[in-house]
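[Q] Does anyone have a clean structure-token version of this?
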Amino acid sequence: MKQEIRVPEVSDGVEKGTVIGLSVSVGDRVEEDQTLLELETDKAVVGLPAPFTGTISEILVDEGDEVEVGQVVMTGEPEGEGQDEAPQEEEPAAQEDERGEEGADEEAPAEDGDRPASDEKEADADREEDRTAEKTEDERDEASEPAPDGDEDAKEAPKTDAKKDLPPPRTESTPPDQVAPASPIVRRFARELGVDINAVEGSGPGGRIGEDDVQAFVKRVMESGAARPGGAGGAVTRKPLPDFSKWGEVERQKLSQVRKITAESMAYAWATAPHVTQDDKADITAVESFRQDYNRKAPDEGKLTMTAILVKIVASALKAFPGINASLDLASEELVLKKYVHVGVAVDTPGGLLVPVIRDADRKGLATLATELNDTAQRTRERRISPADMEGGTFTISNLGGIGGTSFTPIVYAPQVAILGVSRAEMEPVWDGQDFAPRLRLPLSLSYDHRVVDGADGARFLRWICSALEQPLMLAMEDER
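[A] Here you go.
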């Protein structure tokens, strides 16, 4: 008896991914937990394990296909369930189902989105109920905003203004005489966000629209620039790209899942959080001398890097400034102060920037942090980390010192409220009160969400980090918080 193989939920918040490799073919025998395909999500590359030992009957996806959690990607025949047993097992089910097994088979070749007649009737009934409910709600909304006497055009003004900057309705999939397949609650939710429900693509059965679809639409619009703050009317309409091929040869590359999610999350953070970046420099002459001396005796897996030192110092700074180890919850008008310290470290990989998290960094010594960071960075570059390894960060460090540069403006990794950018250290002449002396100085750039962090607190936090780099023994002078 055939068994469906579906995409499992690999991590919280991960709803889809891209197939980047197939490890089996039709007719192959597989062992339970054997990798069937590799799936690239926004957080990592994960393998889809076989749920049984048996033979692969069908492969329903190709490399490059985007799949969602719960989608059937393969079917197979588990061992021990012979063909002769199948009719006996399926016969009771066929008797209970009025359509029978043959009816189900007849529907299988139908186009995607086709559903049984009973489901269609339910959907039609839901739409009819929704039309009535929406009409009632729209009439109530119009009644609550009366136009001035004698001005008939003003009655239509609120609706026109609310939709003028939004993308055109998807008339090709939602005819004018058909109400968008969404419940009254979802349509109300869309109106509160200023979203034309007809412009939203539904991911439910028959294209039904849920709140998640509305939220995803808002994110896409923000990422495309169609709802960026600023400009006339508070929005900027996205301009279409020109035909670049008129001026020369071009090549188009499909965005990887990592790049798409990075683009979305960075645009969201930049559009929603007012950023401020402050620069400072730390004298690391002494700490760099210590680092080099330590590494002469340390094993390769335990080599001490400046990033590991910064993880330890930042963890201590977050304990001293708990308001930066936080997230802003505007919905409940609260600041979420975290009692744990998990530091994310941006790692440059061939597939894009990934941010694994070093957990409980405030409770670990430098030697432990150095070993863990080296191992984590290596596994990240080889795409061997799991999505869980990149969740739960409370602060992020992005070190570009190995590449170069004097400073940069990192974007806060929401829902965190701050990120530390690190550039390349250079020898500089520094006045010591009597003469100029050569000192190794490290440029640091702190970007933060100005809704949460004031300029004075940001400056104090960054100066605290610089002072700790210059006088590491000061960390031992601090009481445990």
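[Q] Thanks! Anything notable?
[A] Confidence is low (pLDDT under 50) at residues 83-119, 136-177, 225-237.
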